[in-house]
Each structure stands twice: as C-alpha cells, then as structure tokens.
Predict the structure.
Amino acid sequence: MNAITTRVPTIRLLFSLMVVIALGLGIYRFYGGLGAATNLTDSFPWGLWIGFDMLCGVALAAGGFVLAGTVHIFGLRKYEPFVRPAIVTAFLGYLLAIIGLMMDLGRPWAIWHPLIMWQPHSVMFEVAWCVMLYTTVLFLEFLPIVFERFRMVRALRAMRRVMNVFIIIGIILSTMHQSSLGSLFVMMGHKLHDLWFTPMLPLLFLVSAVAVGVAMVIFEALLSGLIFGHRHPTSLLGDLAKALPPILGLYIGLKLMDLSARGALGHVLDNSFESWAFNIELFVGALLPGTLLLSPTVRYNRMNLFCCVLMVIAGVVMNRLNVCLVGMLATSPSGYLPSWIEFLVSAGVVAGGLLVLSVMNQTLPIVKAPQETLHGSDATPHRKLTHA
Amino acid sequence: MNPISRRQFVKTAGAAAGAAALPKSAAAATEPRSFDNAVAKLYDATRCIGCRSCLRACRKVNNLSPEPGEIDGVNFDMPQDLSPNNWMVIQAYKQEADPETGKPADWSFIKKNCMHCNVPACVSVCPVAAMEKTEAGPVVYHEDRCIGCRYCLLACPYGVPRYEWVDRMPRVRKCILRLDCVHACPVGALQAGGRRQLIDEAHRRIRENPERYVDHVYGEHEAGGTSYLILSGLPLEKLGLPKLPTTVRSSYAEALMGSLPGLMIGLGLFLGGLYQLEKRQRRVEAQSDAAEKQEPQP
C-alpha cells in the first residue's frame, strides 16, 4: 500500500464534510434567494455555477462520447478498457451539472417546462433537451455495469442488443450539446470580449470538448492507477495521447484563424487582463501540451503524460470560465467575483462527484480487462467460457 | 387553358403548398411581422423636463413600490437605474462645453425602459416562450412559463430586463408598454400612436427644427426596429443608448438552431454507416481467428 491509498478514508471524510457544507448552503440559497447567496447582478446574471458547474462539468464529461465513438464506431478496440470509466465519469459529470443548474435556476421547480413549452428558436431550448436526453442515454449506458455487478444476465443481454443505438444517439446528442453551449454565447456580442466572441463558438466548444474528453480519460486512468493500483499499461495511455496534438492543433488553428478573420488578433498583445487570460488559456492549455505530446518520451512517461493532460484540462476549464466570466467583466458595470457561498457550493458538488466515483471504483466493475466488459465487445463471459 | 393562366395556376399552387408545408414560425421568420400600425411611444428628450410624472404613473398602474432612497437624510424616491421596481427611469446626461467649437455645455434627460423590439432578442433566446412580442406591440413576460435561466437578461442589447434577485419566487421585471406614462406627461415629451405614424412625426420634427435635434430617430432601424422611439438633441451614445446595426440580432443563433435537423440526420447516417462497416470488419476478423485456431500453423 502506498501513501495515497492509506489516506483514502481521510480524503473521503473531507469530501463528505464539503458535501454537507454545500448542502447547508444550498438550503440557504433557496431560503434567501439567489441574491442572498451569490454575487450575481442584472448586468452579470450568469456566474460560477453556470461557468464552472455547467460549462466545465459538461465539457469534462466529453470523455464518454469520445471514447464510445473511438471504440465502437471507429473500431479502435484496444481502448475498450477506458470506455466504462469514461461513461461513469460522464454520467456523474452530467448529474453534477444538473445539480449546479438546479442551484442556479431562479425557478428550478419549473425545469421540466421545455418539455411541453416549446420554443425551438432558442439555443437554451436545445441545451435543455440535450441535458435531459443525454443524461438518460448515459444512465442507460451505465446500467450494464450495475447489471453485471448483480449478475442480471438476462437484462444484460437485452441491453447489449440495443446498446449500439444508444451509443450513436449519445454521440449525436453530445455533438449537439457541446456545441450548443458555445452557441449560447453567439447572442452576446455586446457583452463578451472580442478575444472570445465569435460566430465560431459552437465549433470551438466542440473541438475543445473532444480534446478534453481524451485528456480526462487519460487523467482518470493515471489518477485511479495512482490511488487504486495501476491497471493500464503506459503504452496504451501514450497511444491514446497521440490523438491530442492533432486535435489541439486544429483547435489552435481555428482560434487563430478566427481571431485574424475578425481583425481581433491585435487584442492578444493588449497587455490587458483579458489578453493575459486568453494567452494563458491558449499557450499553457493548448499549445504547450499539444507540442510536448508530440514527443514519445513525454507520451510514454506517466508523470510527463499526467502533467500534459492536466494542462489540457486546465486549458479547457480556463476557456469556459473566460467565455462565461472573464470575457464578460469589462461590459458589466457591477463586475463579478463569486461569493464564498458560490465557491463552497461548487466545491461541494465536485467533492460529491469524486466521493461517489471513488466508492463506485471499488464496488462496481468499472475498470476491467477488455474481454470482460460488455460494451459492444462480442466476447461475453459466457462465450469466453465456451471458447475455453 | 392558356399558358399564362397555367403558369399562374402553378405559381399559386406552389405557393399554397409551400405555405402549408412551412410551420407558422418559419413563415414568420422569412417575412418579419410589421408593427407599423401597432402601439408605439415616441419620447422627445428635448421636450422632457425630468419631472418624473411618468414614473409616478408607471408605479401606480403597475403596482410597483417606491425605491427607498435618501438624499441629505430625507427619504427621496429618485431611482438612478432600472430595477425590479423601476420599469422606467429618467436619467440626466451632461455634455461639457467644447472650447474649440465654442459650443456651450448642454444636458439632456433620457427616459429609459424596454424598447419593445420588433424582433426581440429576449423572445428569441427564451427556451419556454416566457417572453412574447404581441401583435399589439408590447413585449410581455409570462411568469407561469419562466424557468429563471436569465438568458433574456444577457441577450438584451439595451440591458433592460431586471431580475428579482432576493426573491424566493423570482420574476423578470420590465416595462409592458402601458400608456399611463404618456397621459401623465405635462409637456408632451411622450406621445403614443401607431409606430409608422410616430416615425413620420419624428422626422417631421427633425425637418422643421434641424438645429434642435440629432438627425436620427433612435429605434426606427436599431436591431430591426423598436416600438419605443427616441428623439434627442445630444448624440445618442452620450445618453447611454447603444449603437446597433439594423440587422436582427437573433438571426444567426436561429440559423444555428435551424441547422440541427440536418446535423442529426447527417451525423446519424454517418455514424450508423461507420458502425455497420466496423461490425462487418469484426466478423471477418473473428472468422479468420477461428480458422487459425482450427488449422494451427506448423
């Protein structure tokens, strides 16, 4: 047992405490209203709970559709061991985003209204539908893990027959949802800084989500390996990381082309708060890891790989926060700094997610050898037995 | 049947079929509704004396409580900005004297409230149609539909909608184009009427008194036009009115939404096809694996 493993119960206790605090603050938010708990104003109506919980939560959940597509549609089956952890993370990520959304909505009890009150010109309408449908799909993709744990063979087999349809629907919904979160901001040309405001936002959100999806899968595999013991060879993780430089390259290229097409390239050298936020996001979050990961010595070394994917994740988190918060500051007379309640609620939501993930990692068959998993592979345990 | 009438017939039939196939909203999107005869208000800032009789009338008809405020220790209801209780506000802007042109210092009042756009951004972004531009002119809010996402606050280029932040059942609050403020005005700075008629009236005033006005009827073309029109003697951006293009703000986002059916169909076919290919590939591999097992290589 290494040092981190022995500390797991302590960390879980700490996370539980954070969840309890967030719960209490959540009650306070509903008792006193949004104004009592947050620093939101009429000129800054979306804050940390949308910028972090929603935008980052959904982006970091992109591993689910990226890996499912890679393995089951593009047929790169050697990455199958990563599909389950990615789907579990995505499912949790979406649940957490929904909790964040429930905290943030002024009238959360009316969250179901888009189901019957249609306004299909609104991007928010698309977002609402994607959240609902994709969370359902993720739940269905998650179910086999539970079935397997409780040996519900018949349910498993029935699920397998329709799983591919869910995977395809899941990819379509994810493509729509990831890009639509960017589309939300195409109406905000009068608010959002020129460095981020572009009609290309949906495409940029989608491409960066694919990048962070891959990065999250590697990050999780390395982290859970560190805590629960390594289960994946470094070579497999390094191979997966090969996907990052081209995706990040495309992302950087699109961003720079877009900036220059809009004549906003000069803002990069403004030496303003926004220009620094943009440069750190682009260079530390995309250019540096994208370049470093070209080298095999970086890719096939656990520590180096870990640092690189961490940079990619941080880059996308920064991007979402920049679009939703930093880029909006200059045009808001009131300004905005999240209140301590907003910070603690967001932290509690994340802690809750990690807590559930760590418990599930030990109790459910999430990390397994490829031939024993269900998702799409022809080799069920039964057939394996008959072969042997 | 002569050729002309046949052509006419085909044309008419095609148009009828097209109109039937198009959903109502899509037809509306291609041909924006005209609000020329709908209710509008014209505010002439050069006539306004800043008495806020309009504010008092607004408070009364909409049942809004006064804003608690103090000036030199005396309670005073003088709002500085829009708020859930102030659906309109009178602000004053001062322009310093310009020594180069010899222009003296000048100032102007401005009555700010919802502009009641012809094609409002708030209506376009609302996921549950809680905001509605009615045929009669006003943009109204339906509390029973609202989910509280506050997208309307962000989308409005004029920064008009206000939120009840400290309320447990918060609502979006804004002007709903009642005419009591117009009737309350003692100096005729406000005028109600049909939109086109008011635009003509505004241009007439500019024509007759060109030195009194900036040659621009604010709201005639801004972001597709509005039902609240402003005439001013000072440059409009001095009065805090944003310079906006004449194009409708939501056209791009709505086009993105329009692309979704194509995206869903295209991506579905592409992924389905790829999946079938992958499945066949797997079957071939499995067969060759089985063949290898049966006949081991020497």
User: Anything to note?
Assistant: Chain A touches chain B through 55 residues (CB under 8 Å). The first helix of chain A runs from residue 3 to 32. Residues 91 and 138 of chain A are 5 Å apart (CA to CA). The two ends of chain A are 34 Å apart (CA to CA).
